[in-house]
Structures are given as C-alpha cells and as structure tokens.
Amino acid sequence: MDEEYDVIVLGTGLKECILSGLLSVDGLKVLHMDRNDYYGGDSTSLNLNQLWKRFRGEDKPPAHLGASRDYNVDMVPKYHADFDICHDLHGLIIGEHVSHIPEEIRSYIVSHRTRTTLHFSLNKKFMMANGTLVRTLIHTDVTKYLSFKAVDGSYVFSKRKIHKVPATDMEALKSPLMGLFEKRRARNFFVYVQNYNEADPVTHQGLDLTRITTRELILKHGLSDDTVDFIGHALALHRDDRYLNEPALDTVKRMKLYAESLARFQGGSPYIYPLYGLGELPQAFARLSAVYGGTYMLNKPECKVEFDIEGKVCGVTSEGETAKCKKVVCDPSYLPSKVRKIGKVARAIAIMSHPIPNTNESHSIQIILPQKQLGRKSDMYVFCCSYTHNVAPKGKFIAFVSAEAETDNPQSELKPGIDLLGQVDELFFDMYDRYKPVNEPSLDNCFVSMSYDATTHFETTVTDVLSMYTAITGKTVDLSVDLSAASAAEEY
C-alpha cells in the first residue's frame, strides 16, 4: 500500500480481471484490490442451503434435491467462484472448490499468512466461438489455462413455439421457421451477407451499408416480418428492434460473426462454455496479471477512492493506508456517485429434473424470445445448464430466465420464459439494478464499467471492456488473431 501504481483496479469481476490482465501485459504497474471479506452478498454463488435461506427463510430444502454442496447457483447480477483459503500450523489448506489456484496468488497468501477469500464475479453467459471474448483470450494467451465445451443448441421462440436456430443447411431446409419460398429469399439474403466484404466494393452490390438502414436492406430482399424477427434477434442478437432504423453494416457484421462461430466447431450452436464453469475465466486473467507483475490485495475493506484538489483520482485508501495511483478502474459499486441507474433486470432461477422440453434433450442451451413475439420492448432470454457443468447433482438442471424489467412484477413478466421450462422442482425470483458511468474519465481518471445486461452471451460485456481499455491507454487491442490457438476447445 505504500507504493505508487499506474492503475488500481477495484473488484474482481470478469471485466475488471480482463482489464487488469491487459494493462499488466502492457507493462503498466497494476494493483488489483477487492473489498469483500465474506462469502455472499447480493451477488454470490450459493449452495442449496444458502439458496434456501436467502429465498425461503428458515425452511430447509427437501432431501430429494440432493446434497447442498453439489449446487452452485448464480445470484444476480454476477456469478461468483469464491475460494476459501486459510492456514493452520500444518501449512496451507485449500477449500474443496479450488482446483487451479494461480501459483502467484498462492505465494501472496502464504507470504501474508492470512485467511483469504478469492472472490471472482461474472454473469452467467455463453461465449461466441469466434467472438471478441475468445479473441481476447487468444490475444492474451490465457487459452493455455482453459478448456471449452460447445453448447448443445441455440433456439428461438416464434409463433408460440420453440424452434432450433438452424445449424446446418439440412436443418435450414427442414426448419418450420420459414416456408419454402421464404427460405429461398432468405438464402439469397444469407449469401449476400456471407459474401459481403467491407473492403471489397464488388461484394456490396451497389449498397452503402453505412448509409442505408437494416430495414431498407431487408426490404430489398423481400423478407417477411417473422423472418426479420428471427434474423435480427436469434442471429444478429439485437436486444430490441431499434436496429431496424440504424445502419445495416452492424447487423451484417453480427450475422457474419454468428455464421463464423457456428462453423468454428460445427456443433449445434455458435456458443462455447468453459469446462469447470465461468469461474475459470477470471482466474485465468488474474494469473495473467500476476505473471506480468500485477499485485493482488484481497479482502481490503472500504477501498475508498481518493481525489486531489483538481478532482482527479490520486489513490485508494483501505485500513488507514493509501496506495497512490494515476487511474482507477472499477465496477459501479465502488463509485456510486459517478453512475446512474439505467434500468433493472428481472430474473428467475429454476431447479429441474429434466432438460427443457422441445430442445432435443439438450443439457446446455440458449433460447431467445424476441420482443415482438411477446409484445415487449426488449427480448427475454432463457439459459440452461446441468450437472454436466458441475452446477448441480447428477440428473438436475438449472435454468435462468432473464429480461430487462419493464414492470415490478418478475413473476408475471417472466411467465412466457418460465412456461417453456416444463415441470420445475423449485422456482426463485430476483431483480437487480443496472448502472452506467456518467463521469468524464479524461477529467477524473476514473474508468467505471457498465453493469451486466440481460443477454446470455458475452459480446456486449467484452465490447465495454475493450472500449474502456482504449480510453485508458489510447490504444486498440489487436484482435486479428489466429483462432486455431483455441483448437483445444474442439475436444468436447
């Protein structure tokens, strides 16, 4: 605490861990702190007993749900992998959930001879196989710490039914999402998107996608409203229909990413998921930061950000000591005066004894419910994982239904998604606020991340991270990487 750092990072969420890793690789002197010294809070990962205490008070969970320790249920807004580490006279004792604690952090703990909880946080989301997060993993070389498994399927809710988003030409031909003639028109549109090269005007067919809207591009191909709904929300992954009146280039790029990710492992979806769960991701970036000289101080209470007379950040105080710095990176909870509320997310958590019906017995899936299908202002998302991801006992499944809240009644608002789950053993509801920064970093040198949204993929998350990195360093991360570096992910 008596040193001066280029950057102090507060909080160990995924965004903060990625930035800590990137900045350390750049040669900056980084101190990474977390104020939490407890297991839990409003956004923790709970075993079954803790889940029951949070939502059902003093009641005890029924025995048929299995052992409490076999559950790892994510709370809103983030997923936590907490590792309880302590010492006794016989040396280091590591909690049962620790499998790959970074040696650099282990050394720190040993040298300080203290009881420590490593507290890592991120949202329960999938990763696009060719997306920005995977490219960032490869760019930073943390793929050597990780293995992935392809997600079984991606689905879309249309005309009151669940339909698999086609993953092959054969699936497209058989899909009831479109009629025969509509499939022909859609194919012509997909061929245009596939061949489109921003640097080659020949592929533009006379269309300037930076000027014409997505609606105008779609009209030129004569696609029906239902097809537009499917393309815009299940392929381009837009959260609402505002994209229709925005330049078409963004939608085309999103569709190309989906197709490239789908082809990456030739599975049933464009998504992948880390073996051993999402907690592996922040561990990998924490290790990266430590390898490049980053310093970790965990369980530091308060973590008060200090400012000089000009209003610029000058350090962070904890336990009566102040570490000096030039810049601070943090999540919204550390600087509440520099953020504003932009909405809230409603979420349901279900424990089930079966996969979601009409999903081909899939153990890991995403279902997108486009806003128009529900009469909403934004989409609803269903995420399901199972005992194959070590989040529940054998035979049990955990499903999450989430949406940008438009009412104060999550039970009613999330009903369309919950109805897709079939019989549930138990059901819990929760809500959390979303925040975005309102400060000007060039004036105070504070770089605050945006709260996680309701989507079930990481693209918006990493977009925020890369934007923050550019604002902090003035540089852009080169993501033109060799994707074969993640070839180990094919072994699922």
Automatic annotation (TrEMBL):
Xref: Pfam families:
GDI
Q: Which SUPFAM superfamilies match?
A: FAD/NAD(P)-binding domain
* GO BP: any one term: vesicle-mediated transport
Mind telling me which Gene3D superfamilies this protein's record contains?
FAD/NAD(P)-binding domain, Guanine Nucleotide Dissociation Inhibitor, domain 1, Guanine Nucleotide Dissociation Inhibitor, domain 2
Which molecular function GO terms apply here?
Rab GDP-dissociation inhibitor activity
One GO cellular component term of this record is: cytosol
* Entry's family note: Belongs to the Rab GDI family.
Q: What's the protein called, per UniProt? A: Guanosine nucleotide diphosphate dissociation inhibitor
Please name the taxonomic classification of the source: Eukaryota, Viridiplantae, Streptophyta, Embryophyta, Tracheophyta
